[in-house]
Amino acid sequence: MLGLITGLIVFPMITGVLCLLPVFQDDRRRNLFTASVLGLNFIFVLLCFAQEGSFDLLHLSDHLSLRFMFDGAGRFFLLLAGLMFLMVGIYSFEYMTHEHNRPRFYVFYLLTLGALNGVCLAGNYMTLYCFFELMSLLSMPLVLHSQTEESISAAKKYLLYSVFGASLGLGGFFLFTVYGGSTNFVTGGVIANELHQLQLSSELLFQRNMLLIGAFLAIVGFGAKAGMMPLHAWLPTAHPVAPACASAVLSGVITKAGVLAIMRVVYFLYGSSFLCSTWVQYAWLMLILITVLVGSTLAYKEKILKKRLAYSSVSQVSYILFGLAGLNTWSLTGALLHAAAHSMIKDVLFMGAGSIIMHGHTERADKIDGLGLKMPVTFACITVASLGLIGIPPLFGYISKWYLCTGSLIAHHNFFGWLGPVVLLISALLTAGYLFTLTINGYLKKEETESDAHEAGFLMLAPMLILCTLILICGLFPNLVTQLIEFVNTLA
Amino acid sequence: MIQLFINYYETVAVIIFSIGFTTMLLNRNLIKKIIGFNFMDCAIYLFLACKGYVEGRKAPIIIDGVQSMEAYINPVPSGLVLTGIVVSVSVTAFLLALTIRLYYRYHTLDIEEIIVLSKKEED
Amino acid sequence: MNLVQNFPFLSIILTLSGGVVCSVLKGSNARKYCYFVLTSVLVGSLLTMAYVLSTGESYVYMMGHFPAPWGNEIRVGVLETIMASLFSGIMLLSLMGGMHHIFEDTEDTKSNLYFTLVSLLSASLLALVYTNDLFTGYVFVEINTIASCALVMIRYRSGKALVATVRYLFMSLLGSGLFLIGITILYDITGHLLMENIAQSVSVLFQTGTYAFPLSVVVVLFSMGLAIKSACFPFHTWLPGAHGNATVSSSSILSGLVLKGYIFLLIKIFYRVIGMNIIFHERATNVLFIFGVFAMIIGSIKAIQEKDLKRMLAYSSVAQIGYIFLGIGLGTEAGIAAACLHIIVHAITKPMLFTACGGFMDVSGGSKKFSDIQGAGLRDKLSGIAFIVGAMSMIGIPFFAGFISKVYLTTAAIEYSSIKTVVALAALAISTLLNACYYIPAMLVLFTHPKTEKVHTHPRSKEMSLSLYIFIGLNFLMGCFSQPIVNAVIQGIAMFR
Amino acid sequence: MKIREDYEQVGWRKLIHWVNADLQEDYISKDHVIHDQLHLKENAAQEKNKRIDELKSSLQALAKTHGKQWYEKSYRIFSIFVAVAMIIVLLGVVSQLPSFGDPSNPANNEVSERYIESGLQETGAVNIVAGMILDYRAFDTLGESHVLFIAAVSVLILLRMDYGSDGKLRKTKGIRDEGYDRMYEPRNDLILQTVTRLLFPMIVLFGIYVILNGHISAGGGFSGGAIVGAALILYNNAFGFNKTKRFFTYNTFKWVSFASLITYALLKTYSFYTGANHLHSGIPLGEPGAILSSGLILPLNICVGCVVACTMYTFFTMFRKGGM
Amino acid sequence: MNYLMMIAIAFPIIWGACLPLLHYKEADRSSRNKYALTGTLITSALVLLNVFTFKSNAGFQLIQLTDKMSIVFDVDALSCVFLCLIAILWPLAVLYAWEYMHHEGKENKFFSFYLMTYGIVIGLACSANLITFYLLYECLTFATIPLVMHAMNRRAIKAGRKYFMYSIAGAATAFVGIMFLVNYGTSLDFIYGGTLDLVKIGSQQNLILFGYILTFFGFGVKAAVFPFHGWLPSAGVAPTPVTALLHAVAVVKAGVFAIMRVTYYSFGAAFLSGTWAQSIVLSFACFTIVFGSVCAWKQQHLKKRFAYSTISNLSYILLGVGMMNAQGLCAGLAHMLIHGIMKICLFFCVGVVMEKTHREYVPEIEGMGRVMPITFGCFTIGSLSLSGIPLFAGFISKAALGTAAVSSGLPLGLAGLCALLISAVLTAAYTFEIVIKAFFPSKGFNTRHLREFKDPSWQMKTPLIVLSVLMILIGLHGTELMNLLSKIAMNLM
């Protein structure tokens, strides 16, 4: 058990630091080294599928300790993260050629991977909070990599938003330790198992209210990372300035860490039965629906390509949260499916955007007319990904949306039951609006100015193609993924 | 009110006392202040002297062996007045000496002016 | 009658005749004789104090063959002997402290007259402390007034001293005028001049309610008269000029002792003649309390604005008198004990500050301005240390004398527990801060190196160093081992009735 | 380029930018430009303070002169108010005091009764007041004569012309030289001199008579001394300082007052000491009415007489010339 | 044992006093530095010996002032915590001061007062009753004045005077508060649970609470509570060892220690909990926390920024103390210790920057991270710990404070929690702003004029490294520390 933990968390961190050594100044040798590390990490992820159980690594103080746990949710997100980091890693070898001080990028790239693995494996609230903070700290240099004025201030803003979110989470942690008891994650929720009589008795009303406030704080806090409404403002500023591979990882995987954190808190601490049909759930649902709408409308209006994708990931991640907020098995499976789908699709889209910027020499969405002819493969992948995202049946996106809608209709929390699917459909239309324009402009429009745009290199195209095929496969045979997440019915 | 007319000595003494007190306070001229002081003291001694007087009795010098209480007035106030007068004399002498000294130096008797001159003189 | 019991009377006669003897002696012989007189009075009072403490109750000394209401009488208790020994001791030390200044300021032919004034002044102070008869009190108040005005006037070469003397004399005469008319009215309604008899008849009058209005007017006259003489707040305008421009030893004696003599007489009249319950009924203590609070605040504020070290110390005396009147204003026994304690503490500290100021004037060309005495503390180390000790004790830092009296004042205020407590506590806190506001900058000026190097005009005389050492010793003694003195004062107050 | 103060303002605007989610630019700084900007700002602030101080001092000067007139008027009104208030209060007191001349006043109690009834026996003095001030309440009178003495001393300090230790006259500002006193009056005025030659012995004799008979009839040391003093002053006026210097100089004053006061004190100490310690003081009272009667009162009267006479004369000479 | 304690107090004062007498000249600076360091090390050894062999109520009476008041010294559990803090940090500060004071001048005066302050602070920690405490509290002000006014230029004297006026005003108000205890308390000694005799108080409960509030704001001046915090930023003008040690550790912690003593050992937490006095204390603490952080974020001068951060962190401790229960006290003690270490490390880094590059303003330290890696490395660790990131010391005390605040159940407790969180974010803001600016200079930034700056000599580096390691160690192994402190807070030691 300890070996796997070191392998997953400590190994990427150490190798990350090693990248600074002079021996890795040469690009080729360093790319090989990072590729091997990412591969190893993916193998470790596969290994830990055989593991089960949890243990305490270190006792910080009487009720604070570093605890790690291997369970279904953790494994699922580990796999997701490992896969995405590998793909984007390969993509970045070629993309980073036109960026400066590359070793520093890869140092923080691997460190972030280590922290992310830590978040997935966290066994209690404190460890989750610790790695959550480390991840936001280590991913901040990725954002300010280009070191322009905007990137530095965007990085500062990103850092402060996530630290504020984390501190709200810490507030939730304090409330929980005082009123809830031990913060170790237990499937089905600590409160739900031990203190079920809480919902009934009146004189414990004060304690119940405190716990509800704690839950809401944690949700809004960790929601910051997932781009939920009140603290979403950092995403549209941070992603455009970061290099494409960084923003791919950021919106594709690190937002999913936020989702995981909320899932841990809601399902493994409080328990869905405790939070079901309380004001916390309704407020949460309201926030999600607003984010979905706002995200897609802003994305529709946005001209800069990367900013548009950033807004779209704001709204798509709220889809996943909508599933979490449903508090029943159906919507939970929908959420996890959509998490997988969205990370794959968003990575493809960002990689496509990266290659357009690098080889198409344009950042704006309205200036890519006719590029499709020059860069056919990139635009093909983009079209496949956008179709998946909108939810066209054969692709992966459709199944998750279907689960989400059915889950919310079944649970029908008063008027949210029907309002949720309506909002999802409207935003799906908007998504179509802002994604199809890319493919249409790319392919059908003629290019006014003669530009020396050319197709991206093999290293950039390979990961996009692999991911597109994955989207297709999962779309066709969804039960591959649902087997991975059958731990869900133990939770809700 | 009638009592005021019965003790008319004390009334007069008190009025002179207040006038003396205020001239001493009010006036800017040193000599007038000293006069005010003497007013005040004489008024007090008048007040004190008439305290001892008893109707129809004579001064307390024993004449032909008569030593009964009813024959003579109360000797204590007159003793005190005697002491008081000497005090006023000596204080007035001291005040006048000071006034002469100040006049030689500042050639004015107005205390406010003297103060201003002494402040200017020093810096 | 034990021999020791005669010492108080003998000390008064000795000092009186000492004055007369000094007038005929030469300057330096007069100095020696005056030292002899003061030391013998000090030793006498200490012995009497020991005797009275041993017997534990005060005794009455009949002057002449006839008992009290007819002849004169002095009453000797623990508190009186403490005050007597304090006054004579501090007088001796102040004289030693400012000796070479006296000979510089006065003419050669007239320096012996200075010692006449000093011994007569000490005689009047002793008489004020011991007397048990109001009119004797008035006579010695008059001696005190003339002697203290003469002490200020001794530097008649400087115009400012003359002006200050005139203003001081006129204000004092106003005070004694009111005091005398108070005695007369009191004599008229009670028929007695002796304190015990007056007390009995006043209590009878108070019960029956006859002469109620004259009685309250008498109380007002006494308190206003003695307040004017002891420079209480509204009537303090003469004090800075007088104490600021007198010679060093005169200002020490004036601010250390003369003001306290009158306050002690006021305490005696309030406590013994009229009785605290009547005073309480007459609200006189509230008036004094308010005057005290104002004195503390405004005295310190004026001291902050002063540019001249001596005038600053004079204004600080106004503030300290405010502390004492605050103690009396509380009206309780603890309040009066705290007031007496503060009398002792201020008598120890202020003369030391004035002597130190004299030392600074020596080393900075005789000027008192802050601009001239910069760095004087470094040039004359002992005066510097004395000034620091004095300042610390005035601010009320533990280990120094000031702290003890502040402690007892505050506890007295807290025990009183009415609106007065809050006002008293606020006043104490604010005035401590204000004290710091003018003592600390003064110390900063004294201890920063001056721009131009000052000529060292006068090697410090041995007498002055001795007096400064004794003063500092006294301050620490009072600061650290004050318990016996405090017990004696409380016992004295209890016996004072 | 933004200097530090702008940067601070930007800091707050950052808060607002976060709401609408876009932040154009941040602080741009090149190496040392900020450093001197900050110090520039500091000394600008110093100049401003200096100007404020000048303004304030001129304002105070203006207020002072204006304040003077206002102070004058208010002082006058205030003192009239004090006078009226005092009169009203004291009249109120007088109206409640025991009535004048009424035998049953509290003052006529056992104290004055003993003075009158047994005064003759105890002090031997026919004049009870003299007996009271020189025997019963002798301590007051002791203090009394010292008040006179201290007044004389202070007048001496103030007005006496200062002779340096080498005997030469030290010129002090304002005190005129010896001859000035005769500027306006004729010297050796014949009428005055002849009248003085006749009257001087009479007055001195009368003065001595009053002093000696102090305990028998009205009078006593103080009044007798005043008369002798007046005689001396008359003599000086008539014959000038050179003549009076023959028998009365500063030394005589010094030693006469010293001798009389010391004897006074010694006599009284003896009588107080014996009284306090209940010893029998063997001073004969003599039979009342005779000159040598009533124990110590006679010698005390003589001493007081001498002191008063010398002091009166000294006052006159000091005011007249500042020297004997 | 009690003689040992007396030696520990007297030794540094004598050692410091006779330093100027040895007339070290400019040339043999190293021998004077060694002299000072040996003195400090011996004292620290004595203090630690004292702490580990202490058995309480073996008091040592120096002088009997009056019947109720006497100067008594006695080491008890609470003073051990404070003693350990100063015993560890003082030698580091002296070592740091070796090189720093080289360009400040007047080192004799500096080191002598530095050592004397050490003795006085030890005395303060071990004083057994309120009067000794008040006396040493005043001496502390006097001993620190020359240190604050070290540079003797106009600004230093102004700052010194301001500091002095604030302290004297605070001491005066505290004195008045103490007098309530003299009158209404059974004795002035520090006994856990307070020494008020409730019989005598009877109805005047509000008067006593008024007294407590006076004492709180009196000692609060030194603990930089909101209305009286003015002196701390302006005292930044003093040399860094002074600001680091005194205004981050000794003087301000003395203020907080005083409030702990008064609240738990004189007035008694039981008497105060639930009263309006407690709500005043808590509301002021919460406001100062937020106020301090906001001012720090807005402030551009490096030292002033961390001075404001000290103001807000001190109110963290006051928040813990204000809970009036053992858990609150334990959290307060933890934060006192940990904040002392964090803040002194940050001040040292700022000191190195100011001494080496003579730059004082935040915008001017662009790109220095690469040139001075060790300094800014320790600075990053310090800032991480200050903003309460887990695995660093700051998180432990923040967690303890948070749980204490919430578990007290008071509405103000929750307000305290919000203040804690907001100030954590603001701390992150103003510390990481410096870290980002140092390590990631903006694109067009030329680093030619930074070439001549480099890391300081070993004397300055060792304290930094030692402190950073200490922070990480406590961060990882906080359990024993927290158990020890909670036992002390429950008065079981």
What does this structure look like?
The complex is a heteropentamer of chains A (492), B (123), C (497), D (324) and E (493). With 492 residues, chain A is mostly helical. Chain A has 21 helices and two strands. In chain A, α1 packs antiparallel against α2, α3 runs antiparallel to α19 and α13 (305-325) crosses α17. Chain B is mainly alpha-helical. Chain B contains five helices and no strands. Chain B starts with a helix and ends with a helix. Chain B has one domain (2-122): Helix Hairpins, CATH 1.10.287.3510. The longest helix of chain C is centred in the middle third of the chain and has 32 residues, at 159-190. Chain C has helices at 7-24, 27-55, 78-97, 99-105, 111-130, 134-153, 159-190, 195-208, 212-229, 238-245, 248-274, 276-282, 284-305, 309-330, 333-363, 376-379, 381-395, 401-416, 419-447, 462-480, 483-496; strands spanning 59-63, 72-76. Chain C has a domain at 284-497. Chain C contains 21 helices and two strands. In chain C, α2 (27-55) packs antiparallel against α3 (78-97) and α3 (78-97) packs across α21. In chain C, a hairpin with an 8-residue loop joins β1 (59-63) and β2 (72-76). Chain E is an all-alpha fold. Chain E folds into two domains: 1-183 and 200-263, no CATH class; 275-493, no CATH class. Chain E has helices at residues 2-17, 29-52, 77-100, 107-126, 130-148, 154-184, 198-201, 205-220, 231-234, 240-267, 269-272, 276-298, 302-322, 326-357, 368-371, 373-386, 393-407, 411-439, 458-476, 478-489, and strands spanning 60-63, 71-73. Chain E has a two-stranded antiparallel sheet. In chain E, a hairpin with a 7-residue loop joins β1 (60-63) and β2 (71-73). In chain E, α4 (107-126) runs parallel beside α10 and α14 (326-357) packs antiparallel against α17. The model of chain E has no long low-confidence stretch (mean pLDDT 86). Chains B and C meet through α2, α3, α4 and α5 of B and α6 and α7 of C.
Strand content of chain B: under 5%
Q: Which residue ranges of chain E are poorly predicted, with pLDDT under 50 across at least 5 consecutive positions?
A: none
Elements of chain B, N to C (H/E): HHHHH
The chain-level mean pLDDT of chain E equals 86
* Largest sheet entry of chain B: none
Total tally of structural domains of chain E: 2
Write a short abstract of this structure.
The complex is a heteropentamer of chains A (492), B (123), C (497), D (324) and E (493). Chain D is mostly helical.
Helix and strand arrangement:
The complex is a heteropentamer of chains A (492), B (123), C (497), D (324) and E (493).
Chain A: H1 2-18, H2 27-47, E1 53-61, E2 64-70, H3 72-95, H4 102-121, H5 125-143, H6 149-179, H7 190-194, H8 205-225, H9 234-241, H10 244-270, H11 272-275, H12 279-301, H13 305-325, H14 329-360, H15 371-374, H16 376-390, H17 396-411, H18 416-444, H19 458-476, H20 479-484, H21 488-491
Helix pairs in contact in A: 1-2, 1-4, 2-3, 2-4, 3-4, 3-10, 3-14, 3-19, 4-5, 4-10, 5-6, 5-10, 6-8, 6-9, 8-10, 8-12, 9-10, 9-13, 10-13, 10-14, 12-13, 12-18, 13-14, 13-17, 13-18, 14-16, 14-17, 14-19, 16-18, 16-19, 17-18, 17-19
Chain C: H1 7-24, H2 27-55, E1 59-63, E2 72-76, H3 78-97, H4 99-105, H5 111-130, H6 134-153, H7 159-190, H8 195-208, H9 212-229, H10 238-245, H11 248-274, H12 276-282, H13 284-305, H14 309-330, H15 333-363, H16 376-379, H17 381-395, H18 401-416, H19 419-447, H20 462-480, H21 483-496
Antiparallel strand pairs in C: 1-2
Chain D: H1 4-19, H2 33-96, H3 110-123, H4 128-136, H5 138-159, H6 190-212, H7 221-247, H8 250-276, H9 297-320
Helix pairs in contact in D: 3-4, 4-5, 5-8, 5-9, 6-7, 7-9, 8-9
